[in-house]
Design brief:
The protein is of the alpha+beta class and 235 residues long. The chain has 10 helices and 4 strands; from the N terminus they run αααααααβββαααβ. Helix 3 runs parallel beside helix 5, helix 5 packs across helix 6 and helix 5 runs parallel beside helix 7. Pfam families: FloA.
């Protein structure tokens, strides 16, 4: 009798295990097959572990497929860790692909750091990479005024409209000052340069002297950008 009961219990346990395995296979088969066909295989155990940890399986697998298709060997562990850190997995992968296509040296850890640093702001890691590829122009608007006002030594006020062309510096993007600091520094430097001019005519005749003086001061130090040029749009 005892042997019969033991055999019966064994069959029940085996049946439960097989049932669980069948459910797991059915639940993840499509995702597993999609990853396998895309040459970005993910095991059933990994898929189950992600589900148990509350990680969206489809998001991670799709991100890994996208990365592998672009020649970026990012692991599921790296993608999962970034998701659990409340990072934007899909956008971080897209930023790495964009950087790779543009021959910009950007590794996964740095991309994740930039993504987390820009979380909750108007910035993003993808925007940072795009600005590194295609520099953008910033209008120097300070305290709502579209002109930067300075007074030359002859006591005549000079109003200047300036534009700054910047490129993201990915190596120092995390923890560095943003656009506002660049605009403020450029504005202060232009005011200082105008103030050191003998008279307003000097500024009118050679506005490029302002940009040359300002660029020489290395105003992008400690910021997330590299200043490429400063253009005086109007005087």
């Amino acid at each position: 009798m005892d042997n019969i009961d033991l055999t019966f219990i064994t069959f029940i346990v085996i049946g439960i295990v097989l049932l669980v395995l069948t459910i797991v296979v059915i639940s993840f088969f499509n995702t597993w097959l999609k990853a396998l066909l895309a040459r970005a295989p993910v095991g059933f155990a990994t898929l189950l572990a992600m589900r148990l940890r509350g990680v969206p399986v489809g998001l991670v697998v799709d991100a890994r497929i996208t990365a592998m298709k672009a020649g970026l060997p990012i692991t599921t562990d790296e993608l999962e860790a970034h998701y659990l850190a409340e990072g934007n997995v899909a956008q971080t992968v897209q930023s790495l692909i964009a950087a790779s296509k543009a021959n910009i040296d950007l590794v996964w850890d740095r991309a994740c750091a930039i993504d987390l640093a820009t979380r909750g702001t108007a910035k993003s890691v993808l925007e940072a990479v795009r600005t590194s590829i295609n520099p953008k122009i910033i209008d120097c608007v300070i305290e709502g005024r579209d002109t930067i006002d300075g007074v030359a030594k002859d006591a005549i006020q000079v109003k200047v409209r300036a534009r700054v062309t910047v490129r993201s510096n990915l190596d120092r993007y995390v923890g560095s000052a943003q656009e506002e600091t660049v605009i403020a520094r450029v504005g202060e430097s232009i005011v200082s340069t105008i103030g050191s001019s003998a008279n307003y005519k000097v500024v009118l005749e050679n506005p490029n002297s302002i940009t040359e003086s300002v660029l020489a001061r290395g105003l992008d130090q400690g910021t997330a950008y590299e200043i490429l040029s400063i253009d005086i749009a109007d005087v």
